[in-house]
Amino acid sequence: SGSRKSSSDSTASSGDSKEASQSAAGKKETIPEMGSAAKKSDTASDDAGVVPGSGETVTITVSSGDSSVSVANKMVQAGLVTDAKQFDSYLVLNGFDRRLVVGSHTIPKGSTPEEMGTILTSKQ
């Protein structure tokens, strides 16, 4: 009866290790998803809602009297950024809002917020 108990113990422990490896595999699948989801949101906030590049350029016209909010809305309409409030906040926090230059500005899709701010505050 002692060996019987031992074999049932080893069955239980091999069953336990199967469960452990299944849950470890489950965790391995879950962790990258969580990581990439976290990465996406980090990226979005770091990039001020910037749309990935496609090699295309878009022309944004800054008119006299345009606020950074209206420029940010034009950027969303042009497909350069996804979140006007977030991009406007970037412009304001980095002082680009006070230096917008009236005129047409050609901006490559996928530009960083800094590149877009620099283009919008430079004469072309």
Report on this model:
By secondary structure, this protein is mainly alpha-helical. Helix content is 59%, strand content 10%. The chain has 4 helices and 2 strands, in the order αβααβα. A two-stranded antiparallel sheet has the order 1-2. α2 (68-77) packs across α3 (84-93). The protein is globular and about 30 Å long. Mean pLDDT is 75; it is low at 10-15 and 17-46.
What is the averaged pLDDT score?
75
DSSP E strands, number: 2
Radius of gyration: 27 Å
Strand order of the largest sheet: 1-2
Q: What is the 3D form?
A: globular
**Which percent range fits the helix content?**
55-70%
CATH class term of the largest domain: Alpha Beta
Count of folded domains: 2
Name of the CATH superfamily of the largest domain = Endolytic murein transglycosylase
Would you identify the CATH architecture of the largest domain?
Answer: 2-Layer Sandwich
Kindly report how far apart the N and C termini lie: 90 Å
Portion of residues in beta strands equals 5-15%
CATH topology of the largest domain: Dna Ligase, domain 1
Specify the number of helices: 4
Order of helices and strands: HEHHEH
Architecture blueprint of SSEs:
Blueprint: H1 2-46, E1 57-62, H2 68-77, H3 84-93, E2 103-108, H4 113-120
Antiparallel strand pairs: 1-2
Helix pairs in contact: 2-3
Task: List descriptors.
124 residues, Dna Ligase, domain 1
Summary?
With 124 residues, the protein is mostly helical. It is built from 4 helices and 2 strands; from the N terminus they run αβααβα. The termini are far apart.
